[in-house]
Amino acid sequence: MGEDLVVTRTLVVPAAELSERFSRSSGPGGQGVNTADSRVELSFDLASSPAVPEHLRNRMLARLDNRLVDGVLTIAASEFRTQLKNRQAARERLVRLLRDAAAPPPPKRRPTKPTKGSQERRIAEKKRRAQTKQGRTGRWD
Questions:
Q1: In whole angstroms, what is the distance from residue 77 CA to residue 93 CA?
Q2: Locate the Prokaryotic-type class I peptide chain release factors domain: which residues (predicted)?
Q3: Which CATH class is domain 5-102?
Q4: Those residues with Cβ within 8 angstroms of residue 63's Cβ, 6 or more apart along the chain or in another chain
Q5: What are the start-end ranges of the H helices in the chain?
Q6: What number of other Cβ atoms are within 10 A of residue 97's Cβ?
Q7: 8 Å CB contact between 76 and 89
Q8: Distance in angstroms (rounded) separating the CA atoms of residues 32 and 66
Q9: 30-35, long-range: CB within 8 Å, 24+ apart, which pairs?
Q10: Angle, nearest 10°, between helix axes 54-63 and 83-102?
Q11: pLDDT tens per residue, the chain (141 residues)?
């Protein structure tokens, strides 16, 4: 499991910069849940990592601000019974988070006005709907 994480073509997190902690899980495990350390906490120091390019670091720190503690991103995985599967799940989750945080911002939307035809269709549909509802007024004379 000591292999580098490939996040994007330009961002590869070395295995040496990841730290793992193991503890007892509260999840599935049967009788072994109280003896096996299957819960995994994977930590990555995003703020001081030399593997992260500077232009990506600022973007990622801003996007992951609510998940960071002193610049360190921590992922916990305890949904599986085995430590190995939880380690894989934590790594996959970390890659997904970092990839989403490193993605370029979407292009700015240029505001446009609705077309004349779309305005007319909207008004015509409103009038049809009003007539339908007008027939529902329960006037009993």
A1: 9
A2: 11-135
A3: alpha beta
A4: 100, 101
A5: 54-63, 83-102, 116-134
A6: 19
A7: no
A8: 34
A9: 30/81, 32/81
A10: 110
A11: 568 878 888 788 887 888 888 877 665 556 655 667 778 888 888 888 888 888 888 888 888 888 888 888 888 888 887 888 888 899 899 899 988 988 888 899 999 999 999 999 999 999 999 999 988 887 666
Write the DSSP symbol of residue 67.
G
Question: What token pair was written down for 25?
Answer: 């899980």
pLDDT, tens only, 100-110:
988 888 899 99
Kindly state the tokens that stand for 135.
């027939």
CA 116 to chain CA mean position, Å: 40
